[in-house]
Design a protein that fits this description.
Elements: E1 2-6, H1 10-24, H2 35-46, E2 52-59, E3 62-74, E4 77-82, E5 95-96, H3 101-113, E6 122-129, H4 134-144, E7 148-156, E8 159-161, H5 176-182, H6 186-202, E9 207-211, H7 216-231, H8 233-238, H9 241-256, E10 260-267, E11 270-280, E12 283-291, H10 301-316, E13 320-322, H11 329-333, E14 340-347
Parallel strand pairs: 4-6, 12-13
Antiparallel strand pairs: 1-2, 2-3, 3-4, 3-5, 6-14, 7-14, 8-13, 9-10, 10-11, 11-12
Length: 349
């Protein structure tokens, strides 16, 4: 196993052509590990945090691993984090070709113990999806090497497994939407239908609108940011100038690759609710949302829009509707089932 070390952003450029292809050969292909996401996060949110280190692992001349890291000095302790950690990236991991994990992990641990690694006291690998071997095999290997390693469940990502086209129509369920509703608790099914009927009755001009690409993206992102900040105090605080710039850049990057799904529920010709989602790898990823809290709260525009997005995802033939991190009640009311997200912490003895 040969490791190539990059100590700045030249690593991103050097690996650009092979990055996403390697990700597609890994155990968990996610937008949060794409070249586009990692570089945009680093440029807007990461570059001021600490020095960047990117390791590229080759086996017989073939790229089999990318390990993007940055280091942060906090008091007397220096910690290595994966690029994208901690904020705004719901799934993170080393990018390793499936079947090559042990060889890449062994090379990484050897590098950590050697003179080329930056000074470090801990390696903090956050937001690891369940299929990753970093919270299992890497921990075992690090412990065997004499370091302490601990794994905790950091959070959950509730997901809806969407109906497959081969599951309908049936005499009971004429389409995928009805099949989805049929899987819900009776109370929640009734509530969704009630809200949809009410908005049809009281706001007949209500319209679902998608912005996915083109010159409309820039204005749509500004509408999203405005609605996000209006939603509640915590969201207003979260959406700093720095974060706004990040969302603008990520919208353009994802739109260019066909991954953006920015949606609005317009009532009276004005956006009342919005969802910033990604359409990636056969799944819809629900990234963030906003609504006009003063507009038509009695019509539950956010709830209605979410139901429409699930129906649209089924019509597109998507596999999962992923609510991403957080155990908010509404995710389960729409049928979300928990998938775990882990955190691995390796420390020097």
């Amino acid at each position: 196993m040969e490791l190539t070390l990059y100590r700045d952003e030249t690593g991103f450029e050097a690996l650009r052509e092979e990055w996403n292809a390697l990700l597609q050969r890994s155990r968990f292909d996610t937008i949060f590990l794409t070249w586009e996401w990692q570089t945009t996060w680093w440029r807007h949110l990461g570059s001021q945090r600490g020095p960047l280190t990117i390791l590229a692992a080759h086996q017989a001349g073939r790229l089999v691993g990318i390990l993007p890291l940055y280091s942060v000095r906090e008091g007397e302790m220096t910690t290595l984090y994966v690029v994208g950690c901690i904020e705004v990236s719901d799934y993170l991991d080393f990018i390793v070709e499936a079947g090559q994990e042990e060889a890449v992990y062994a090379a990484f641990l050897t590098w950590l113990a050697g003179p080329e690694a930056p000074a470090w006291d801990a390696v903090d690998l956050c937001n690891q999806p369940a299929p990753s071997l970093a919270h299992t095999r890497l921990v075992e290997m690090a412990t065997a090497a004499g370091w302490s390693a601990a794994v905790t469940q950091e959070d959950v990502c509730p997901k809806i497994v969407l109906p497959r086209p081969d599951e309908y129509p049936t005499p009971e369920f004429p389409d995928g939407w009805e099949l989805y509703l049929g899987r819900l608790d009776k109370k929640e099914r009734h509530e969704i239908r009630r809200k949809l009927r009410r908005i049809e009755r009281e706001a007949p001009d209500a319209a679902l609108r998608f912005v996915t690409a083109g010159p409309e993206v820039a204005a749509a992102v500004e509408d999203f940011i405005a609605l996000h900040r209006q939603s509640k105090a915590a969201k207003h605080t979260f959406m700093t100038e720095e974060m706004q710039a990040y969302f603008r850049a990520m919208a353009q990057e994802s739109a260019a690759r066909g991954w953006l799904q920015l949606s609005f529920l317009d009532i009276g010709g004005r956006p009342a609710a919005t969802y910033f989602c990604f359409d990636y790898g056969g799944d819809i990823l629900v990234y963030n949302s906003g609504y006009d809290a003063a507009a038509v709260p009695q019509l539950s525009p956010g709830w209605v829009l979410l139901a429409q997005l699930i129906e649209h995802a089924i019509a597109l033939g998507r596999t999962h509707f992923d609510f991403l991190q957080g155990n908010e009640d509404y995710k389960y009311r729409f049928g979300g089932q928990d998938t775990p997200v882990y955190r691995t912490l390796i420390r020097r003895a």
